[in-house]
Amino acid sequence: MDSPFRPTTDTPCRPERIVYDGSVTSLAADAQYSALLRDTLENGARKADRTGTGTRSVFGRQLRFDLANGFPLVTTKRVHFASIAYELLWFLRGDSNVTWLQEQGVRIWNEWADESGELGPVYGVQWRSWPTPGGETIDQISQVLDTLRTDPDSRRMIVSAWNVADLPKMALAPCHALFQFYVADGKLSCQLYQRSADLFLGVPFNIASYALLTHLVAEQAGLELGEFVWTGGDCHIYDNHVEQVTEQLSRTPFPSPTLRIKPGRASLFDYEYDDLMLENYQHHPAIKGAVAV
């Protein structure tokens, strides 16, 4: 019997060890990520931070992932794909309350929510209903989807969560602030700018989340997969994650997993978690680390 899931990646590439030089090419997810971890651990500047924890930090780094070579989910520790997927679906709903996430068993936003579960006008609100001075709202995601279909060569396919006027109302200012789509030779690529990058806890989630978004948008636009490009501003390891990062760097990565998407959804906003299947995700055990709030 044929599977209802359509493969969206080819055979994963073999992981390889690289030295991070700031201009790496499309290698395995773990190789690039581990090289950035090592560079930051060994060469990062010691900096204070908003949470008072302390960090080792580097500035302005880029990782590139060819999405035809596997889904870029870190394998040197277990990363909870369900939380990543549900969070993205929550963003696409335009939601800013953690209640729906909690109903799916996802608790990653609980620390920042108020007593009613509200976070203020964070990611999903800005993506789906950016407020205008005239009292109307702009659905940035729908605009991008329309442009992909009508003018795929446009250089304006950008979605921003960084609404300066709304920052004081947000429980947490957007860390992954802006992303842009790009089409060439029938392939869809996406670049994310992440102003603040918690390399141990946050970045593996963020890379996988936007890679997943690229898969879903490509499916809806009838395009093949290109690259996901992750660009980080302040890339840091918290001082209370140094031991965990050292353990993670001692592990040998596995090949990247494969993502399948069940076809047939009429809209990007119709997807459910059961439409996604992550296959061949070999990984090392999870490594716990405290979240800096």
UniProtKB/TrEMBL annotation:
Keyword flag NAD: no
PROSITE patterns associated with the record: THYMIDYLATE_SYNTHASE (PS00091)
Classification via Gene3D superfamilies: Thymidylate synthase/dCMP hydroxymethylase domain
Every Thymidylate synthase/dCMP hydroxymethylase domain range: 32-293
Catalytic residues as annotated in Swiss-Prot or TrEMBL: C175
Binding positions (dUMP): R50, R155, R156, R195, S196, A197, D198, N206, H236, I237, Y238
CDD domains per UniProt: TS_Pyrimidine_HMase
One of the GO biological process terms: methylation
Reactions mediated catalytically: dUMP + (6R)-5,10-methylene-5,6,7,8-tetrahydrofolate = 7,8-dihydrofolate + dTMP
Metabolic or biological pathway: Pyrimidine metabolism; dTTP biosynthesis
Positions that bind (6R)-5,10-methylene-5,6,7,8-tetrahydrofolate: H80, D198, A292
Main location: cytoplasm
Protein family membership: Belongs to the thymidylate synthase family. Bacterial-type ThyA subfamily.
Role: Catalyzes the reductive methylation of 2'-deoxyuridine-5'-monophosphate (dUMP) to 2'-deoxythymidine-5'-monophosphate (dTMP) while utilizing 5,10-methylenetetrahydrofolate (mTHF) as the methyl donor and reductant in the reaction, yielding dihydrofolate (DHF) as a by-product. This enzymatic reaction provides an intracellular de novo source of dTMP, an essential precursor for DNA biosynthesis.
The name this protein goes by in its record: Thymidylate synthase
Organism annotation: Cryobacterium luteum
Taxonomic lineage from the root: Bacteria, Bacillati, Actinomycetota, Actinomycetes, Micrococcales
